[in-house]
Specification:
single chain; about 30% helix; globular; alpha/beta; binds S-adenosylmethionine; 7-stranded mixed beta sheet
């Protein structure tokens, strides 16, 4: 994602603590208290400008959504969408997903969304892919026994390497599409990248996976 310097972003994020959680370490194990209900928690890792997570939160008020994004100049756009939506089931974290275990307890999360994650095509950068084994270990820890990973991308290389990573880890593949927009899948909510790349004619790949529980 091309980054524009937004020196005001930090202050704006800090001005909306009802949406942007400033001390997420203190929420570990307590997310349902943060949301003041006991609804399931779904997270999106690499939420970007927030279109997907905001539309999901609007469409599914009985789920709590948390968008996680490393870049403050990007997540500030997600904050604008959250403010406009005026909803209580959406929070945003401006943190690195490499530290997920600092923010979520075992079994605390019911679903992880990975949408158009950075592909890191070079082999020497494979560990940075959000579907690399070390990330799967973290997702396995924080997901409950019914938890799932829903993954979308237009990048064939990333999709292939991710399916290999899921398989090598011993995960179950419960859904796969090599052309989501021409499939029978219903209820898809598009991300910013998905809109851009599908307009360019790219097929969208999608999978659902879960960890074996026996
Ligand atoms: N999901 C959005 C979409 O589909 O439009 C954004 C996709 S963009 C290619 C990937 C986003 O993931 C970037 O905004 C990037 O900053 C974020 N990201 C990459 N690695 C991350 C990490 N380790 N922790 C948090 N965010 C990360």
């Amino acid at each position: 994602m091309r980054l524009r310097n937004k020196p005001w972003a930090k202050d704006k994020l800090a001005a909306y603590p009802q949406y942007v959680i400033g001390n997420p370490e203190s929420c570990k194990g307590n997310w349902q208290q943060v949301f003041e209900n006991n609804q399931p928690i779904y997270i999106e890792v690499g939420t970007g400008k927030g279109q997907f997570i905001t539309e999901m939160a609007k469409a599914h008020p009985t789920i709590n959504f948390i968008g996680i994004e490393l870049q403050e100049s990007v997540i500030v756009s997600a904050l604008d969408l959250a403010i406009a939506a005026d909803i209580s089931n959406l929070k945003l974290l401006n943190v690195n997903a490499e530290d997920l275990l600092n923010y979520f307890d075992q079994n605390e999360v019911s679903r992880v969304y990975l949408n158009f994650s950075d592909p890191w095509p070079k082999k020497r950068h494979a560990k940075r892919r959000l579907t690399y084994r070390t990330f799967l270990e973290m997702y396995e820890t924080i997901l409950n026994s019914d938890g799932e990973i829903h993954f979308k991308t237009d990048n064939r290389g990333l999709f292939e390497s991710s399916l290999m990573s899921f398989s090598d880890y011993g995960m179950l593949l419960t859904y796969v599409s090599l052309d989501l927009h021409n499939s029978e899948y219903e209820g898809n909510i598009m991300t910013e990248y998905e809109e851009k790349f599908s307009k360019m004619g790219h097929p969208i790949y999608r999978s659902e996976t879960r960890f074996r529980t026996n």
